[in-house]
């Protein structure tokens, strides 16, 4: 289905979103601090509300299909962004980044993520327009990623990060102490890099990996570059505040990776079925579309995404509460202690 929105709405939306991101960046730069739970909560609520208002505008100016595709895409990217936060937590802890400067690190990570995803969106849109069979590759890649997501362990991730860290330390001179948020400082009259450089590189590498996963996933929901890009922007907006809001709760969402794996696997299957339906490869059904291959609708996708995340979150919280009870404390007390560590 070819979707079209008024040009003024598309251009205006991108301008407004850019201004909001710039304002957010300036706030972090001018006033680095650890946001309170109330402040973080209000910001997250603001960005979520903004996304829902945007979906409503798409419903009014476009139709239900526009709004549904945006919501499904936004929720998919939001869930993947939350998964991204797990790795950010590991990176922050590994390098003992002062909490006062974690906001700046997160903002740099979000900017890098936007740039990388923007590039991949343009490449993905061009590939889809030129080669319909690319959906087979996207689908297979997402299914592989889903399996890897479900069965990978945290130890494997940490080992890979250690290898990157060791390589960087062998190649460049890095001080043992942070100097505020500076990337480069002076010690005994010599210029050296601070650990912040490695933190930024680690964050950027993580963003690259997650961009490779997220872009094929959302193209399985919509082929509109505008919806793909705005869904990514809204998913990343407020991610910095969400990091501080969730705090120790992130580590308690043990089953979240399974919910994300289900979403990625589902979209992978959806992409392959779509590719079969629109098939042009000569060695598959003589180059004709496979008529029995069903097209999975936007609202079905939205239901699977919401259901998967809801089940994974509730199951994680039930297990976390059970584990906390065994330790003789409440879940809230356990989260509060972890967030301070």
From TrEMBL:
<comment type="similarity">
    <text>Belongs to the TerC family.</text>
</comment>
<keyword id="KW-0812">Transmembrane</keyword>
<protein>
    <submittedName>
        <fullName>TerC family protein</fullName>
    </submittedName>
</protein>
<keyword id="KW-1133">Transmembrane helix</keyword>
<dbReference type="Pfam" id="PF03741">
    <property type="entry name" value="TerC"/>
</dbReference>
<dbReference type="GO" id="GO:0016020">
    <property type="term" value="C:membrane"/>
</dbReference>
<dbReference type="InterPro" id="IPR022369">
    <property type="entry name" value="Integral_membrane_TerC_rswitch"/>
</dbReference>
<keyword id="KW-0472">Membrane</keyword>
<dbReference type="InterPro" id="IPR005496">
    <property type="entry name" value="Integral_membrane_TerC"/>
</dbReference>
């Amino acid at each position: 289905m070819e979707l079209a929105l008024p040009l003024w709405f598309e251009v205006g939306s991108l301008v407004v979103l850019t201004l909001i991101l710039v304002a957010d960046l300036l706030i972090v730069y001018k006033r680095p601090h650890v946001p309170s739970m109330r402040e973080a909560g209000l910001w997250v609520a603001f960005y979520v509300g903004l996304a829902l208002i945007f979906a409503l505008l798409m419903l009014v100016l476009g139709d239900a299909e526009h709004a549904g595709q945006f919501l499904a895409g936004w929720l998919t990217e939001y869930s993947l962004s939350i998964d991204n936060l797990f790795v950010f937590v590991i990176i922050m802890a590994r390098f003992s980044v002062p909490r006062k400067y974690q906001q700046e690190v997160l903002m740099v990570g979000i900017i890098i993520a936007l740039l990388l995803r923007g590039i991949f969106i343009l490449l993905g849109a061009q590939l889809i327009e030129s080669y319909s069979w690319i959906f087979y590759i996207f689908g297979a890649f997402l299914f592989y990623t889903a399996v890897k997501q479900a069965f990978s362990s945290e130890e494997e991730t940490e080992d890979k990060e250690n290898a990157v860290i060791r390589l960087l330390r062998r190649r460049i001179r890095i001080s043992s102490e942070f100097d505020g948020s500076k990337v480069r400082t002076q010690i005994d009259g010599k210029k050296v890099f601070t650990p912040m450089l490695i933190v930024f590189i680690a964050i950027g590498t993580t963003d690259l990996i997650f961009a490779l996963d997220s872009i094929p996933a959302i193209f399985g929901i919509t082929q509109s570059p505008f919806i793909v890009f705005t869904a990514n922007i809204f998913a990343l907006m407020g991610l910095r505040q969400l990091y501080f809001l969730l705090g120790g709760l992130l580590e308690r969402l043990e089953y979240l990776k399974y919910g994300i794996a289900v979403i990625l696997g589902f979209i992978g299957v959806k992409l392959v079925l779509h590719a079969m339906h629109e098939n042009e490869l000569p060695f598959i059904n003589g180059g004709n579309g496979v008529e029995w291959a069903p097209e999975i609708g936007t609202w079905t996708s939205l239901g699977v995404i919401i259901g998967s995340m809801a089940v994974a979150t509730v199951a994680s919280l039930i297990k976390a509460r059970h584990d906390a009870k065994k330790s003789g404390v409440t879940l809230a007390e356990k989260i509060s202690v972890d967030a301070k560590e």
